[in-house]
């Protein structure tokens, strides 16, 4: 079954220990980011291909995308998409900021210890 | 051309790899979707960006911070390429470039493997149909893969040239072939064969009377650099020797599909071909970008085998990246060493400091008959970038090579 084989094997580690050049935590995040950068490029090129095909078939007129003006409803939907997108991606910033305002926040493990103590 | 190259038009100002869609396809080339092609285009541009726009910053940091810092700390300047590399490992410019370069290679392997593995059964059937029953492929399943190939997968390519995932498997040949464009950015041309065309051009110019009938290429993998030799000397028979069954299988299917039929593919170690080929049975022994994937011992064995296999007056030619001559700046040497330490090419560093003339002599060649030269990748310049005119230095990856050889 090649799809599952591809899922399992495409990203296989080559023989030989991997070198790290940065703090490993940082390098891990950078590696994930670079893969996302790649996939964004792929998505961009796909949209560009679509535009060019639509133009070639006469569905889109040259300049139509650049002069596109959404009506009020579409504009709201699109701006809300931007807001949701940013909030989704910056979740950790939100959570760290919320944490900074709390003085009595407790870790779940500490709470579990408390419960054990509480049971006496 | 004039029309498309108006001032400020994209075509006039563009300098970089061509779109992957210009690549030459053949009967065993994997299918590539739109997004798979764009992944390769992106990764080729990443390598281009790193070489053209990030490396100059690494060099500037070396000159401004690394070298002066070392001198201040040690009371003397950096004296070896290893000192230069280790000092740069303390500098963020080198580390950031290195992390990105390593990741780009890892992404390239993942991208290429995804494309091939998702269609593996169909590809293997297609390949098998092209080569089934063909006696020009001679495999040896009992062949032991030496440690210099098995311990560390070259250029981070999982399973290297030899691993098989299914019976009659083409996977690792297809991955190696179709996505190598990421690393070369098109500098090796439509069929990744610019190295082979360069060798042919060099031989025709420098050895105009040479008319080989039996040609042997060591480590020829899928035949990228070999098929131009076979095409240029159609009366000759070219034999490719390699350790890896998947690349040899793929190589024969590829060659047949491209209409090159005077080639054979033999799975064997070039270190010892006794019992397979007789003494003096070849006119020409060739290696192209192969020596750096060996070991000291293997290189010596292979040089000795090339001497044994050549008839008197026969020619051996090795095409490689330039050696670390004393006049090569330590920064450049350290950057060229990157592949040895961080891209799983462990012999690269040692090999490039060896006295190859002395090794040729040790193998039995006459020092007076040693050949030196230089070549650039030869490509269709209407479509592909020309290495001779490209000022970008992607240390160790540019299609600009040295030739060392000898007349037996």
From TrEMBL, chain A:
Superkingdom to which the source organism belongs: Bacteria
Protein name: Uncharacterized protein
Organism: Novosphingobium sediminicola
From TrEMBL, chain B:
GO biological process: methylation
Keywords, ordered alphabetically: Methyltransferase, Transferase, Ubiquinone
One Pfam family from the record: Methyltransf_25
Molecular function GO labels: methyltransferase activity
InterPro entries for the chain: Methyltransf_25, SAM-dependent_MTases_sf
Domain of life of the organism encoding this protein: Bacteria
Keyword Disulfide bond annotated: no
Annotated SUPFAM superfamilies: S-adenosyl-L-methionine-dependent methyltransferases (SSF53335)
Keyword Transferase on entry: yes
Residues annotated as domain Methyltransferase: 215-314
Family matches, as CDD domains: AdoMet_MTases
Designated name of the protein: Ubiquinone/menaquinone biosynthesis C-methylase UbiE
Organism from which the protein derives: Novosphingobium sediminicola
């Amino acid at each position: 079954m090649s799809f599952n084989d591809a899922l399992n094997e495409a990203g296989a580690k080559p023989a030989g220990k991997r070198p790290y050049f940065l703090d490993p935590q940082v390098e891990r995040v950078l590696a994930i980011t670079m893969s996302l950068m790649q996939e964004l490029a792929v998505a961009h090129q796909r949209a560009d291909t679509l535009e060019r095909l639509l133009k070639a078939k006469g569905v889109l007129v040259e300049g139509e995308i650049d002069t596109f003006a959404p009506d009020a409803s579409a504009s709201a939907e699109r701006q809300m998409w931007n807001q949701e997108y940013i909030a989704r991606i910056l979740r950790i910033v939100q959570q760290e900021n919320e944490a900074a305002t709390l003085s009595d926040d407790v870790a779940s493990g500490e709470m579990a210890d408390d419960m054990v103590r509480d049971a006496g | 051309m004039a029309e498309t190259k108006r001032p400020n038009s994209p075509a006039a100002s563009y300098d970089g790899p061509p779109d992957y869609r210009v690549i030459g396809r053949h009967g065993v080339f994997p299918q590539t979707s739109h997004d798979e092609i764009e992944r390769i285009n992106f990764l080729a541009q990443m390598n281009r960006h790193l070489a053209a726009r990030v490396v100059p910053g690494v060099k500037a940091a070396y000159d401004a911070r690394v070298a002066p810092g070392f001198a201040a700390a040690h009371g003397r300047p950096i004296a070896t390429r290893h000192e230069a590399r280790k000092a740069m490992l303390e500098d963020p410019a080198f580390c950031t470039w290195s992390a990105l370069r390593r990741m780009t290679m890892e992404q390239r392997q993942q991208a290429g493997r995804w494309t091939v593995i998702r269609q593996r059964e169909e590809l293997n059937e297609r390949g098998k149909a092209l080569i089934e029953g063909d006696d020009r492929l001679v495999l040896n399943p009992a062949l032991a893969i030496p440690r210099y190939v098995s311990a560390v997968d070259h250029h981070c390519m999982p399973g290297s040239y030899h691993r098989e995932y299914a019976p009659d498997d083409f996977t690792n040949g297809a991955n190696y072939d179709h996505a190598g464009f990421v690393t070369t950015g098109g500098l090796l041309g439509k069929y990744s064969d610019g190295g082979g065309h360069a060798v042919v051009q060099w031989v025709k110019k420098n050895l105009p009377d040479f008319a080989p009938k039996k040609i042997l290429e060591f480590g020829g993998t899928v035949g990228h650099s070999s098929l131009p030799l076979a095409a240029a000397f159609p009366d000759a028979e070219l034999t490719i020797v390699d350790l890896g069954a998947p690349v040899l299988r793929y190589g024969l299917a590829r060659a047949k599909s491209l209409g090159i039929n005077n080639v054979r593919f033999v799975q064997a170690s070039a270190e010892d071909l006794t019992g397979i080929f007789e003494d003096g049975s070849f006119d020409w022994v060739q290696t192209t970008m192969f020596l750096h994937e060996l070991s000291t011992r293997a290189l010596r064995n292979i040089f000795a085998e090339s001497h044994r296999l050549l008839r008197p007056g026969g020619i051996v030619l090795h095409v490689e990246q330039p050696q670390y001559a004393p006049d090569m700046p330590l920064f450049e040497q350290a950057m060229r060493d990157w592949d040895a330490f961080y891209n799983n090419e462990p012999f690269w560093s040692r090999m490039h400091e060896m006295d190859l003339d002395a090794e040729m002599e040790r193998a039995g060649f006459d020092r007076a008959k040693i050949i030196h030269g230089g070549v650039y990748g030869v490509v269709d310049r209407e479509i592909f970038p020309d290495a001779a005119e490209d000022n970008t230095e992607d240390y160790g990856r540019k299609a600009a090579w040295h030739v060392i050889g000898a007349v037996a």
